[in-house]
Amino acid sequence: MGYKHSALKMACVAGVCGLIVLTACSNGRPDSGKKKDSVAAAAKPVTKDTVIAPPAVAKEPVDTAAYNKKLLFLVHNDPASRFLIYRDYPLPGAILPFKRIVAYYGNLYSRNMGILGEFPPSIMLPKLVATCKEWAAADPATPVQPALHYIAVTAQGSAGKDGKYRARMPFKQIDSVLHMAAKINAIVFLDVQVGFSTVQTEVPLLEKYLMMPNVHLGIDAEFAMKPGMRVGKNVGTFDASDVNFCSAYLAKLVKTYNLPPKVFVVHRWTDKMITNYQQITLRPEVQVVMDMDGWGPQQLKMDTYRSYVGSKPVQFTGFKLFYKNDVKTLKKVKFAATTMMSPQQVMALKPSPIYIQYQ
């Protein structure tokens, strides 16, 4: 079976997985059966004047020679790679490619949406620290920046009051994630699943957080629905114009508040999830990561990465690992279960992902 066909099959399987997660939701928000964590309850409110900034956001001038060297390292010293075309260096304080970001992903209302919400902070944070140490050991030349990647807007299986099939998380939950992150000097990503809404509507509502130097953005095309689609049944899509809106919005915040560059993660595991990708605009204020977040056995994940991210990297690349779904047997596509890929295996991909996410 060809890898392109297999990757499309994985898209269908992942869509079903999304439905399983979403149908566990009720009243327009993820399942609330989970007992609220004491850290979340005790978190202090965050205002626009609150800055919880880890050392990673220090605005040191960009060492252009080191930047070029790291890019060559990521493409396995292939100077002909399209990955090296971009020569407009980022603003001072850029995280990439000087550090590899290792993120835990999820939502505090659901154990099923990722490790960030599966375990309490007393367990989750030490696990993340240990995972970061594994990556540091695998690549001693690249320091590791821990991150919490929180789904701040979640797609829903039901329409909700406004018919948009998405729920916005209360700010107190985002506040909780910020305070968790501060305990281990982690940065924070706010991820947006728009449903039948748009990034043009949803992203600006998070401005009081995105104006902080340690808060970055992710958007998930899988749940960006178009007319005739159903959440959890169809794989959604963003156009380059949607990506460009977000990067322009982030660039404006960087300029207005004199921030270091924002890291902007765009999830992708099929061709149609991001249309007209060649028209994505790169800006010195924003570092774009195209993240392969499909799940399945190792060969399937590597084929999908090569097809839809590695060959179309835009700027930087990311790779998602699933503690549970990556070790499942996929009978429909004739792939036996395998172990989850190791840091060494992920780094061997070309180009090497500089953003790593665990769900």
Structural summary, described in words:
- The chain has 359 residues and is α/β, with parallel strands linked by helices.
- It has one domain: TIM Barrel (Alpha-Beta Barrel).
- 32% of the residues lie in helices and 17% in strands.
- It has helices at 3-22, 38-42, 64-74, 115-118, 121-138, 171-183, 199-202, 207-210, 240-256, 298-310, 343-347, and strands at residues 100-106, 144-155, 166-168, 187-192, 215-220, 238-239, 262-268, 274-275, 286-292, 316-321, 355-358.
- The chain has an eight-stranded parallel barrel, surrounded by four helices. Strands 6-8 form a two-stranded parallel sheet.
- The longest helix has 20 residues, at 3-22.
- The radius of gyration is 19 Å and the shape is globular.
- The two termini are 28 Å apart.
Distance between the termini: 28 Å
How many individual helices? 11
Determine the oligomeric state from the structure.
single chain
Approximate strand percentage: 15-25%
Question: What strand line-up does the widest sheet have?
Answer: 1-2-4-5-7-9-10-11
Which residues form runs of ≥5 with pLDDT under 50? 1-56
Strands, helices and their partners?
Layout: H1 3-22, H2 38-42, H3 64-74, E1 100-106, H4 115-118, H5 121-138, E2 144-155, E3 166-168, H6 171-183, E4 187-192, H7 199-202, H8 207-210, E5 215-220, E6 238-239, H9 240-256, E7 262-268, E8 274-275, E9 286-292, H10 298-310, E10 316-321, H11 343-347, E11 355-358
Parallel strand pairs: 1-2, 1-11, 2-4, 4-5, 5-7, 6-8, 7-9, 9-10, 10-11
Antiparallel strand pairs: 2-3
Helix pairs in contact: 1-10
